[in-house]
Here is the input.
Amino acid sequence: MAVLALFWGSGFLWIRIALQHGLTPVQITVLPAALGAAVLLLLACSARQRLPRGGALWRRLAVAAFFCNALPFLLTAYGERSVGSGTAGVLHATTPLWSLLIGLALGTDRTAGTDRTTPLRLTGLLLGFAGVLLILAPWRESGGISTPGALALLGAAASYAVAFAHMARALAGTGTAPLALSAAQLTAAAGLSAVALPAGGPLNPFSGFSGADPVGLAAVTVLGVACTGLTFHLNYRLIATEGPTSAAAVGYLLPVVSTVLGALVLGERLTVRAVAGTAVVLAGVFLVKHRPKPRTVVPLLTD
Here is the structure.
């Protein structure tokens, strides 16, 4: 869990470093997907897991790759041009809040086998977004956080929520081994992202990687190999060995890791308001992900 949280949570740091050393958001989208796909393809081959076949499954994988990889990678890289890596990690932690909001809007949210959402989860939803407002402080003229960048990061979190809903409905139970399925998804993401390279516009003048220095290339390599490829693999291993509850608990550590690394490595300023907002967001996420235990009915013993 500690290694997974470190790899996953440090991704925001590596994105920020890559941006500072000459890479564009589009390049930061393509390279990690390609490197992560290469890592997972090697792991799948070593485990003798074959890639899925069939056009229908690959079309579903392409949708998952767009919303779970290509789009959020691009939005995150764009957002971190003006928002610190620590704040980026906190805004990404709002994914469960978006999942609940989407479920309420579509009427697909279910709580503990019932057709209603508990007041506790609704409270968590409101609390989580109140924490986001506390961090962004739109009422302050010099809040220090770019609104377009913050909106891009929130959009990335919402994109993950859409992806998870799609993957649960369209990819669960396909019979394909997890490593092979992940490798196929990242391969599709690399292909989708590469299409945007020539048309990157102001985000990417398609000048190759001439503007990137060795530090930027090293950062994006770590981002692709460790924070994308190995993270996928470790997450599946954690689910298999410790169960989904332990895997979900890693999500609470990501904002902590990103905030601490941002302060220690990049010297990002930690304010009381930002720390308080982070705590409020995590409290809201905890309530949203909370599932009440089913009541156990104990029969009365009579003579």
Notes: Confidence is low (pLDDT under 50) at residues 201-207. The radius of gyration is 20 Å. Residues 214-242 form the longest helix (29 residues).
